[in-house]
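Justification of resources, computational component.

The compute hours requested in this renewal are based largely on the per-chain cost of generating structure records like the one below. Each record pairs the submitted sequence with a full C-alpha cell output. That output is archived, and it is also reused by downstream analysis tasks.
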Amino acid sequence: MKKSWLRLIGLFTIVTMLTGCDPLLVLDPKGPQAQVQAKDIMLSIGIMSFIVLVVFVILAYMLMKFRASKQSPDYKPPHIKGSTMVEIICVGIPVLIVAYMSIISVQSNYKVESTPEKYKDEKPLVIYAATSNWKWHFSYPEENIETVNYLYIPAERPIEFKLYSYGPITSFWIPQLGGQKYAMADMVNTLHLAADMPGEFMGRNANFNGKGFAENTFNVTAVTHDEFDEWVKEVKETADLLTEEKFNTLLQPGHVGQSTFNGTHLTFLPAPEGENGGHLKDHATP
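The structure output for this chain reads:
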C-alpha cells in the first residue's frame, strides 16, 4: 500500500512539473520549413499512437477470450499450420505504413531543402554561418558586416545560410524555423529558412563537439524589413572593423559573448566553396 502511494505521489510530481515547462519548440513553428516538419512529426505520432492503441485492444481481447480459466482441464489446443490472412495483415500493414511515410518524407525533404514556396519570388538574404570551438560567426556579405553568437534577420524574407566549420563537425539548428544541418570543414552546406513573423528564437549546435558543446548556442532576432535596414546602418556607423588578427583570436577554443563588426572574415579567409571545396587548398600551386 505504501509503495502504491509513493508511485502516485511521484507521478503527480512529474505531471505538476511538466505543466510548467515551455512547449516543445519543434512543435511551435514560426517559419514555413518548421511547419512542414512539425506536421510530419504530428502525423508520425498519430500513426504510432493508433498502432499502439490497436495492439493493446487486441492484447486485451486475446487475454480475456483465451485465458486458461475458461478451458476444461483436458483441453488440448488444435494444431494450426498457419493463417494466410494473418500473415498478410502482419506483413502488409507495416509495408503500407512504411511506403506511405516514405512518400511523405521524400516530399517533405524536397520542400525543406528548397526556398520556401511562399517566398520564391523574393531575393534571399545570404548569411555565411561558420562555427569554431565553441562559437558562431555570422557573415553578411551583401551588408559587409559580421556578428558573433547572434543573428539579426528580416522576417518574411527567405534566408540562405551557407554552413561550414573551422573545427569539428557541428549542426546548425533553429528549432522554430527549421531542421538542423551539418557544418563541416572544407565544404559548404546550404540551408534555406525563413521567419513568418518578428520574434526571438533560440539557436544552437545540435551535434556534440567537445566540452564546450552545452554553451555552443546563439540568439536569433527576426525583425521587420525597416528595422533590419536600421540595424545594418547602425552597425556600419558604430561597430569596430573586423581584422584578420581579431578573427584569428576568435577562432581560438573557448566561449565569448556577442559582438558585432564592420567587414567580414570572408575578405581575408573565404569560405571553402568551389568545385573542390577546400580539400585541395593545402596543395594548391602558387
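The first strand starts at residue 125 and ends at 132. The two ends are 82 Å apart (CA to CA).
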